[in-house]
Design brief:
By secondary structure, this protein is mostly beta strands. The protein is built from one helix and 13 strands, in the order αβββββββββββββ. It has a single domain, classed as Lipoprotein localisation LolA/LolB/LppX (outer membrane lipoprotein receptor (LolB), chain A, Clam). The protein has a 13-stranded mixed beta sheet with strand order 7-8-9-10-11-1-2-3-4-5-6-12-13, with no helix packed on it. The protein starts with a helix and ends in a 14-residue tail after the last strand.
Length: 205
């Protein structure tokens, strides 16, 4: 009886150790990372991703000056277009942000230590859904390099160019308050807010 109990305890300890042998899935501290993104059929682009501790909120600055704001806890997403002074509210869903996030569907196998953008990380083999690849992830949960092959066989590379742990500036995760708000609909963007009152109808004398 005691021998069986000890054996079951040993199995449980091994299972816990195996489950724990994976990286942190969200950043434990605020960071701003400049990534170079290279897809199979397109020229490389650079995207800056700023993430609060815990992984939310998140801001993605695109090459064309637009940026996305993602708040997973509030399930809010918005695209800010400075050139048009517009905030386009989007349905909360998978989007560009998922390429820079880890999730609990990923299965990890530890490989070797590495360094990317002067930050130490651990290389892992990763399998998720029908895609596979390798990632180098820092001890504080920041994905620094992702080299993958998607379900169509295309290779994609995301690699950190620089990493900053400086605190975010005031309002960095908020849209400008004076920008007009629009909501995405199947028929195109529509204004957000109460409808404007119509002027009184002028009756004929």
């Amino acid at each position: 009886m005691i021998r069986r109990l000890l054996a079951n305890m040993a199995i449980g300890i091994v299972a816990l150790a195996a489950a724990a042998d994976r990286p942190a899935l969200v950043p434990s501290r605020e960071a701003s990372v400049l990534y170079r993104v290279t897809n199979a059929d397109t020229a490389p682009i650079e995207v800056r991703v700023t993430t609060a501790a815990g992984g939310s909120p998140m801001r993605l600055d695109m090459p064309d000056r637009t940026y996305m704001l993602v708040d997973a806890s509030a399930r809010n997403m918005a695209m800010v277009v400075p050139d048009e002074q517009m905030v386009l509210k989007l349905p909360y869903q998978d989007g560009p942000q998922t390429h820079f996030q880890l999730n609990d569907r990923m299965r990890f196998t530890r490989r070797a230590p590495g360094t990317v953008a002067s930050v130490r990380c651990t290389t892992w083999d990763v399998v998720v859904d029908n895609a596979r690849g390798t990632m180098c992830i820092s001890d504080d949960g920041i994905m620094l390099r992702s080299l993958g092959v998607d379900e169509t066989g295309r290779r994609n590379l995301i690699e950190a160019v620089s990493v900053s742990y400086a605190p975010a500036t005031a309002g960095e995760f908020m849209p400008p308050p004076d920008f007009s708000e629009m909501a995405a609909t199947p028929d195109g963007p529509v204004p957000v807010g109460p409808p404007q009152a119509l002027p009184p109808l002028a009756l004929p004398p």
